[in-house]
Design a protein that fits this description.
It is found in: Cell membrane. GO terms for molecular function: glycosyltransferase activity. Belongs to the glycosyltransferase 2 family. CrtQ subfamily. This protein has a single domain, classed as Alpha-Beta Complex (Spore Coat Polysaccharide Biosynthesis Protein SpsA, Chain A), CATH 3.90.550.10. The protein has an eight-stranded mixed β-sheet, sandwiched between helices. The chain is about 40% helix and about 20% strand. Strand 1 (about 5-10), helix 1 (about 15-25) and strand 2 (about 35-40) form a beta-alpha-beta unit. Helix 1 runs parallel beside helix 2 and helix 5 runs parallel beside helix 10 (about 210-225). The protein is of the alpha/beta class. The chain is globular, with a radius of gyration of 17 Å. The chain is built from eleven helices and eight strands.
């Protein structure tokens, strides 16, 4: 079985992290290691992670790209799996990843993200995000789409071989957002990217704040502008931080 290192970047995630780590304790087979990379949280995030017995890495610099790269440097597994602190994964996660990467033509993969909250499931937003995995590369990078490009985002639990990750220099730390889509664009140069036909559950906190209609418009707008080459620094102003 492949050794899978799960890397969780955190910043003030006390309200979600405990539930996520409880789900990870149910993995069968278990992950090789779980690394929480914290960006100077001001709540109980670090103590929750320490109480769960996972490795905590202190990042002097905040930012998902920086934190995930730091976690990847410390990881010892053959496969890197990047997980948001508010996302729940199936208990056979490690087996799914191993089966997907057993095809040597596949360099990376991710899951279908279902956005859920305490009161509702965001079916419409989830469907759009699923379709975006395919239509975004087809519209804007058709030559890469037919080579196997699928645009995956952080809540889809991206995984890839460690060697491939560093061969393309990991996440671009200069990007404030869209670092995951940029990683996919680089990874596809060495293999195909697969959207696994399994569900992970992500928090709907951002959609709950914006509303489903506004959220879909923002996701669509950002995706279209990014596809046309607009800088991530400009796009960031449409994507405020929500905890």
């Amino acid at each position: 079985m492949l050794r899978v290192s799960i890397i969780i970047p955190t910043l003030n995630e006390a309200s979600h992290l405990n539930r996520t780590l409880k789900a990870l304790r149910l993995l069968s087979p278990p992950a090789w290691e779980i690394l929480v990379v914290d960006g100077q949280s001001e709540d109980e995030t670090v103590s929750i992670a320490e109480s769960a017995g996972v490795q905590v890495i202190d990042s002097a610099t905040r930012g998902r790209s920086t934190q995930m790269n730091l976690g990847a440097k410390r990881a010892t597994g053959e496969v890197l799996c990047f997980l948001h602190a508010d996302t729940l994964v199936p208990d056979d996660l490690v087996t799914i990843i191993a089966q997907t990467l057993s095809d040597t033509n596949i360099v990376a993969g991710g899951f279908i993200s279902l956005m859920t909250g305490s009161q509702t499931t965001r079916w419409g937003v989830s469907l759009h995000n699923y379709l975006k995995t395919y239509y975004a590369p087809f519209l804007f990078r058709p030559y890469l789409f037919f080579r196997g490009l699928r645009l995956l985002f952080g809540d889809q639990v991206i995984f890839c071989r460690r060697q491939a990750f560093w061969d393309c220099e990991g996440f671009d730390e200069s990007l404030p957002i869209m670092e995951d889509a940029d990683l996919c664009r680089k990874l596809v140069k060495t293999g195909r990217i697969r959207l696994v036909n399994r569900i992970v559950q992500s928090s709907d906190r951002r959609v709950a704040r914006w509303g489903s209609f506004k959220a879909t418009l923002i996701y669509l707008y950002i995706g279209l502008l990014w596809g046309m080459g607009v800088s991530a620094d400009y796009l960031q102003k449409f994507y405020q931080d929500i905890r």
